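Suppose you are handed a protein chain with no further information: no name, no annotation, nothing but its sequence. What can you learn? This example shows the usual starting point.
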Amino acid sequence: MVPERAGASVEAVFREERGLLLAALVRRFGDLDLAEEVTSEAIEAALTHWPVDGVPPKPGAWLMTTARRKAVDRLRRDQAYAARLAVLQVEADRAAPAPSPDGELPDERLQLFFTCAHPALPAEDRTALTLRCLAGLTTPEVARAFLVPSATMGKRIVRAKNRIRTARIPFRVPDAAELPSRLPGVLQVVYSIFTEGYAASSGPDLQRLDLAEEAIRLARILRRLLPAEREVAGLLALMLLVHARRDARTGHDGDLVLLDDQDRARWDRTMIEEGAALVLVALTGGPPGLYGVQAAIAALHDEAPDVAGTDWPQIVGLYDVLRGLAPSPVVELNRAVAVAMRDGPAAGLALLDALSDEPRLQSYAPFPAARGELLSRLGRLPEAAAAYQDALALAGTEPERAHLRRRLAERSKP
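A reasonable first move is to predict its three-dimensional structure. Written in structure tokens, the prediction is:
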């Protein structure tokens, strides 16, 4: 809920309350389209009344009352629609929580998280639906995040909603037996949003801060809803520790600045402290998880005074743990770079060369870029230039390309 609601702006109230309202209405009526439509209508009504009358003491209750009236009016006009929803309503009423005694909305967003990230939906649809329903982005905004036309994204979101309806995907939190298998999918959706914000796949900018910050907000919601899940803490920690470097990752001209060259005074120390505290939560009380280990690696980077003072042996050790949890060519690539920092560029290059036939790395720009850097450190400049040329052909954003062009020019000098 929004703190200090009396002083909160209308925009801040809408941002927080929309997800709560939508989740409660989906639970009440069992239909995502209907819930979205009456949520939008309730917010439009608030935009008319609140600037004149002021934000009510319990804005969520006001919005819920307005939205429910609009839903009832709509159902009265469409009896066939109402009859279909009545079947779903029986199940919803059985599982519905008791009304809050203070009139606040029950927080049912966790059910919506698991619905949007249901494994029956294609991966791209899960992310799109999460941005639309839980982050509250409009369809054009989601389309911009995916770099596709609005019409295409609109069809994708409609397809996902239809899949939920026709497959009768339940609006519920998995039980204790299902949760371990379903939670990773929810976390992956949120992390995918953050990844696109941290390192845009294409476009004029290196970062999409709006997406990164929205992913962090969603992770905070998950953390409140699932406080005992250590991997939720690990995911939030990882995103905070990486996002803390956002201001130093680009120069004044928007060009990419590598970790080695970043001004660490520009890193967000408050965010780093919060992330480091969450790492301890994520790694305490059981075997380490995927996000907890990655967060621990990020914490070692953030807490080091400089690149030379980074605990590279421990980072390599953590990558060894990570490769056991989730082996992948990208993990091997990152481990090879860490080994190069610990044992020297020749050792790292040998590991990279052993990965040269991995299909997933053939179109992954960081792989030839890493080879170019290590070859350069070894004085093998013609080979370094060729590797940078390969990376340049694969880079997705203009800041990456500008950085690689500069590296290429430096390594091509006699």
